[in-house]
Amino acid sequence: MDAHLTIPSPAPGFLLANERTESSFEEIPVIDFSDASSKNVTKRRALADRIRDACVNVGFFYVKNHPITEATIADTIRAAGDFFALPTPTKLALDIHKSANFKGYTALLGENTDPTGRGDLHEGFDLGWEQQGDGPMTGVNVWPLEADLPGFRDRVLAYYRQAVEFGQSLFPLFALALDLPENFFDDKTTKPAAIMRLLHYPPQRPAVDDDGRIIGIGAHTDYECFTILWQDAVGGLQVQNAEGKWIDAIPIPGTFVINLGDQFARWTNDVFKSTVHRVTNRSGRERYSMPLFFGTDYNVRLEPLPSCVSPEYPAKYEVVTAGEYVKRRLEETYAHSKAD
Ligand SMILES: O=C(O)CCC(=O)C(=O)O
Ligand SMILES: [Fe+2]
């Protein structure tokens, strides 16, 4: 029998010993993933320990030595550039507001991630698994016509497939980091919610946008379990520590940024941090990024793990399904630009 399956379940409240209330981190750790699929459980555990430390204290970490090829990344970013260079009416034909499951194009200021803001200065293109069924968020993607952008769908899906595989390989590591059997998430991620975005941030125009209420993406937490984010070399992503200070997540070539989202905060009763972040593009250059948001299957209930609850630290969140939760958050984000 594989060694990892013999790990006993942690005692109730066990993980609360890792809780740090004052996570005033000054930098974001870089974690080497060379051992992620090592056959040696001791090596996988050592990696999971570093992941747990980052999840408890920061909620963000960089991954180096990841499995996604640079050629695929470069081609997808070129495809994103081609897409955003399409005429506005062609992009607006794919308007996300027309889609029941939040797929397609978001125009500049079409989202307002921080309710105190006036809209986000980015445009986006969202896609996901083409899941059949009538649950929230299931359904098809919305692609540009092949004649408008030959090859776009195949180029984007080439990245999507690699990134989904990478994301699926992270669930066992997060399980180990939570002292759970590595297969804990297997039956909860049979059709993993994997929403990908291509994002384009034009440079902020100081005179017009700099009342501070229109920035690239307003301060927010992500909605799912974790996000795999590729960012280009322009910079502008910032992460907020417990003192409210913004820490730059500077671009590091050859890495991905991974951050936790609210589903993991709910699973772990906030032992794992879903950390607030934002993007401000004052570089004078166009910025591109690609987040991929990983959640559980949409019918999974977000119940706190027993190891993260105690009489002194009771469950904080109402239990909802992952699908209900994500849909509710997306509706809030797009409400301000929705035509009645
Ligand atoms: O573009 C980035 O670097 C971050 C994007 C982000 O935070 C998001 O889409 O949730
Ligand atoms: Fe985010």
TrEMBL record:
State the superkingdom.
Eukaryota
Q: Does the keyword Chloroplast apply?
A: no
Q: Which GO terms describe its molecular function?
A: metal ion binding; oxidoreductase activity
Domain Fe2OG dioxygenase residues, every copy: 192-296
Under PROSITE patterns, the record lists: FE2OG_OXY
Specify whether Oxidoreductase is a keyword of the entry. yes
A UniProt-annotated Pfam family: 2OG-FeII_Oxy
* Assigned keywords, A-Z: Iron, Metal-binding, Oxidoreductase
Its family remark reads: Belongs to the iron/ascorbate-dependent oxidoreductase family.
Identification of the protein by name: Fe2OG dioxygenase domain-containing protein
Q: Which organism is it from?
A: Mycena maculata
**Organism placement in taxonomy:** Eukaryota, Fungi, Dikarya, Basidiomycota, Agaricomycotina
